[in-house]
Every structure is written in C-alpha cells, then in structure tokens.
Amino acid sequence: MSERLPRARAIRLGWTCAAVAVLCALPFYLDAFWLRIGLFSMAAAVGAVGLGLLSGTAGQLSLGHAFFLAVGAYGYVWLAGEPGPGLPTAVAAVLAVLLAGAAGGLFSPVAGRVRGIYLGVATLALVFLGHHVLLTADSVTGGFNGRSVPPLELGGFSFSTDSELTLLGVPFGAEERLWYLGLALFAVTWFTARGILRSRPGRALVALRDSETAAAVMGVNVSRYRSAAFVVSSMYAGLAGVLLALSFRRVVPDYFGLVLSVDYLAMIVIGGLGSVAGATAGAVFVTTLPLLMTRYADQLPLVAAPGTTDGTVGPTEAARYLYGAAIVLILLFAPDGLHGLARRLRARLRRRGAAPPPSGTTAPSQPTASAVRAKEPTP
Amino acid sequence: MTSLLDNVFNGLALGAVYALVALGFVIIFKASGVMNFAHGSLLLLGGYLTAVLHDDLGFAGALAVSVLVTAAVAGAMDRFLLQAGGPDPHTAHVQTIVTIGVDILILTDLSRRIGGDLLSLGDPWGDSVSGLGPVTVADSRIAAIVVSAVVIAGVFALFRYTSWGLSLRAAAEDVEAASLMGVRLVRVRMLAWCLAGALAALAAVFLAAFPAPGLERTTGQIALKAFPAAILGGMASPPGALAGSLLIGMTEALVAGYQSELHVLGEGFGDVAPYAVMVLVLLVRPTGLFGGKAAVRV
C-alpha cells in the first residue's frame, strides 16, 4: 500500500488540476443561465459546507441556516448601500461575514447548552423571528420588497455589467466575473473547512458528536466548542449570503424562510454527513435540480405548458414532484448520501479492476459484488 | 376585562388544537426519533379529504374517512419509506430528511388541487356563537376544546392501559431491550405514525372551522407552531406537549389581542411570539419544561 501512495496522490492532484481548469474555462462556453445556476450552486456549497461542519461533524442540528444567510446578505447590502454607512463594498462584504459570525455568537447561550432536536427547533425560532424583523425593520431591510444589492468592487474592478470587458472574444458580464469570485470563495471554503476537519478542533467536534461525556473527559471544553462550531458555521453561512446577494442582485425577506433552511439540511444529508465533498455535491444537487427541472419540465411527458391551469401538472409542479421524489429515492437507496454512494462505486470499480480479492477482507460487501457480476459478466 | 377573557378563551381553543398536532408530533418522535416535517401536509391532506367528501358522506362520514385515510398514509409512509431499511435508530436523521421529500410531494399535489380556493369543511357549527358568562364565543371553538380534551384523554389512556402503549413506552425507553422482550418494533412504530396522522386530520377540522375562513393550501403551515409547543413541553413527554401547546396558544392569542399596545414589536408579532417564548424557556431549561435530564452511559 505504501509504495502506491505517491502514485495515488499524483493521480488525485491530476484530477484536481483538471477540475480546476474545467471550472475556470466554463464562463467562456456557457451562457448566463448556466452560469447563474453555477453561481447559486457555489453559494449553496459554501453555506452547506458550513452547515456540514455544524450538523454533520459536530452533530448539532440547525434549522436556522437561512437566518445566518440573511444576516450575511442583508449585512452586506446595508453596510455597502444607501441607507446605511455606505462603506467600500469589499469592506462591507468582510464585515457582513463577521456580522453573521457575531449573530451566531449571540446565539451561543442557547447553542452551547441546548442539544439535539431541541436545538433544531430553537434555531427554527431564529428563522421566524429573523423573517419578522426583515419584514418590519423597513429602514434597514427595505421591508417586504427588499433592497437591491450594490455590486462588489475590488480594487477598481467591478463585478457588474457597468464596464465593458471582453476576454478572448467573450464579453464578460456580471455572471462571468462573479463566477471567478464564487470559485475563489468556494476554494477558500473548501480548504479552510478541510483544514478544520483534519486538525485538533475538528477531531474535538467529532468526539463531541460521538459522546459528549467522553469528549469532556478527554479535555474538550464542551460548551465552548459547541458555541465555536456555531460561530464558524454562521460565518460560512454569512459568506454564502453575500455571494447569493451578489448573484441575485436583490434581496427579499421571503427567500430566507424555513424552506431555505430545510433545503440546506437536505443538501448535507443527501450529500452525506461529515464530509466537505459530500456537502458540495449535495448543494449542487439540491440547487440545480429544481432550476433545471423548471426550465426543461415542458419537455417531459405528461406536463402541460405553463398557463394552462385546469387540473394538469405545470412545469413548476412537475419540478417539485421530481425534486421530492429524488430526495426520497436517493435516501432510500443510499442512506449515506451521494458521498457514500461514490465511495461504494469506487470500491466496486477498484475491485473489478484488480484480481479477485482474498475473501476475508471484503466479506461484508461480497454479496453486492457477486450480484453485480451475475448481472453484467465481465468480458 | 371581557377582552382579556376573550383572549384567554381564544388561546385555550388555539392551544387545544395545537395540542392535537403537537401530540402527534411527539408520539412520532418518541416512537421513531424522527422529526416529522411532513406533519403539515398530513394535516392538509386530512382537511382536504374532509372538504371534498362532506357533500357525499355528510360531515361525520367524511371526517371518519379522512381520519382513516390520513392515518393509513402516515402509517404507509413510515412502513414503506422510512422503515424500508429496518427500524434502525442510527438513521433517524436520514429518515427526517425523507419526510421532507414526502412533504414536498404531498404538499405540491394538494396545493395544485386546492389552488387559490377556500374550501369549506361542512362542519356542523357553522358561524354560530354562544354566550358563556360575560363573553361570546364561537361554537366551533367550544367544540375544539371539548373534542381535543376527549381525544387527548383517550390517547393518554391508550398509552397507559393498552399493550400497544406499553410497547411504545418500552421501545422509547430502550429499543434493544424492548425488542428482546418481544416488542414488534416495526408494528409499534407504524401504529404510532397512524395515530399521529389521525390526530393531524382531526386538528385540520378545527383549524379550518369558523373564525378561520376555511381550508387553504397554507393551512398545513400551522403545524409548524406545534414544533415550539412540542419542544416547550419536552419532546419526549406527551403531557409536556399538552402544556406547551396551551402556553403557545395563549401567547399567540394574547399577543395578537393586545397588538395595539405592542406595536413596537412590529405588525404580526403574534405569529412569531411563540418562538420567542420558546427560546426564552430553552435558555433556562434546555430540555423543555417537562423533559427530564437523561442519564448518559459512556
């Protein structure tokens, strides 16, 4: 195994480079619709990775993620805009992330003590109270109609369509520019989250999830780590909120409701708890599926064109049906989520590629492997 | 003074209905460790069935059918979707997310059918009112309190005196031990879901009856109020769910009743006041009012 390790690492590095290259090249080939889907996915991935740290790694159920997204998004809009202090947009973005972290910190008296399903419903309260504040504090949030988002400017470069920019014959509008911002922020999220997971605090959080008492005996400061996990996760949510606000160009209170929180929860479970890659996959899945289905639903059988309402299934509804069914089916057949599914597929491929393994080591998964062979005999 | 009595009575009626929903929610959690996000759609399903059937079957017949069907749907959902991989407590969070998927499916279908309509459930109380001492109250509200009280007493009797109740309590205490003692976990769980579905269908009647305009597609969202009610009481305690529901109903009615004095908090604070109360309670008692401290073995 040890002599294969460098090769495996090289292969992994190669795949990573290829993925990065493809992601960087995409804006030159895709139109705005696809880029916007990509942007939403990246924002969702940032938020989902944060929630994954909290709920997947630390085992603290949170239904309040939408609230922290809202703090990030509205924080940015208020700090950078009029009415508001009108700070430089880059500063406002950083402060908005810190603000979301502070909001998570303020909740720590609850987050540090309340656990399990109680915490889940307590955070639900944040969503409803937050939504109420967003609706009533007109002067800051713009009330029901929300506020438009000032575009981000970084060292004279504006992430909007205001200034003309053409690269290699491709006009670079807001979506193309934001794509790279999203990629950079996602990369930061990816590496910091993996760093946290693999370091001392990450292990402490896993220990907390598995047994609070045992972790406390090992010297983990329980309530401090629980609160810290909450703060870090809120900061990721705030970052996602800023990115979402920038891609939407308008923030409205109704977006940041319970449905959004539940979507994030679905993302991390569908992706597979406790892994950054899983959270990302889940985020992409949950974000893209409804958008794609709404767009292409009229090409599905049994779906009526939009506008006909006499008891037939419209495209939006068809998208919802398929989305609901997809959640149920995925979890029915892969309870450990997409991450677990990928791991099993990889193991199966490797087993098929290699010589027949000694029966002792792979005994638990033997039945599935032989079932597959029976169905599709290898030439 | 009359307005205070009015509000208190409203709160009582509201709390009684929330109790039906919250009790179902707690029963499901106790039996399976799952937070049932589909509870709102089950409620809406029950209301919808009563609404479409009452012309043909009469109110009582329609209600009976809707309670049975909703119970069957809830039971089937648990048996065939959630317990598909066996009653494994380790996957409770996965099952919770599956309920989200089911919720989306049922809710989408019902919203499509209901559209923008307001459905009447054909309940016998209509908009009649009676005088109770100094206050005038809607008959539907009195019915809500009476029916909820009877049904909840019946459910507690089920817990206390039937072998199913004993099995459920045993399974909630210790799954492995219960299983070794011959408790059929799959069936006990499924029956718990059936009971919760039936309670939700019943609650829908009172949520759509008189002061409310009728059954809308958003009626199911009221089940969300049962979350804080269940948590306030302590998730694993049915009597706690009852107390929590009354507290939530009372808070909502009082805050809505004194809206004009509380305008600092913004319009419509009554809808979110239950959550504020819940957070305050959790700050003091992290496992709810009636939730005991669990002993943990390492």
Automatic annotation (TrEMBL), chain A:
Bias-annotated ranges (Low complexity): 360-371
Pfam families noted in UniProt: BPD_transp_2
UniProt KW Transmembrane helix keyword: yes
Gene Ontology cellular component list: plasma membrane
Residue intervals passing through the bilayer: 12-30, 36-54, 61-81, 87-110, 117-135, 178-197, 228-248, 255-286, 321-342
Location in the cell: Cell membrane
Protein name: Branched-chain amino acid transport system permease protein
GO MF annotation: an example: branched-chain amino acid transmembrane transporter activity
UniProtKB/TrEMBL annotation, chain B:
One Gene Ontology term of the molecular function aspect: transmembrane transporter activity
Biological process per Gene Ontology, one example term: amino acid transport
Keyword Transport: yes
Subcellular location: Cell membrane
Topology in membrane: Multi-pass membrane protein
Family annotation (Pfam families): BPD_transp_2 (PF02653)
GO cellular-component term (any): plasma membrane
Segments crossing the lipid bilayer: 12-29, 36-53, 59-77, 142-161, 190-210, 222-248, 272-292
InterPro entries: ABC_transp_permease, BCAA_transport_permease
Keywords: Amino-acid transport, Cell membrane, Membrane, Transmembrane, Transmembrane helix, Transport
Alphabetical list of PANTHER family matching this protein: ABC TRANSPORTER PERMEASE PROTEIN, BRANCHED-CHAIN AMINO ACID TRANSPORT SYSTEM PERMEASE PROTEIN LIVH
Recorded family membership: Belongs to the binding-protein-dependent transport system permease family. LivHM subfamily.
Protein name listed in UniProt: Branched-chain amino acid transport system permease protein
Native source organism of the sequence: Streptomyces collinus
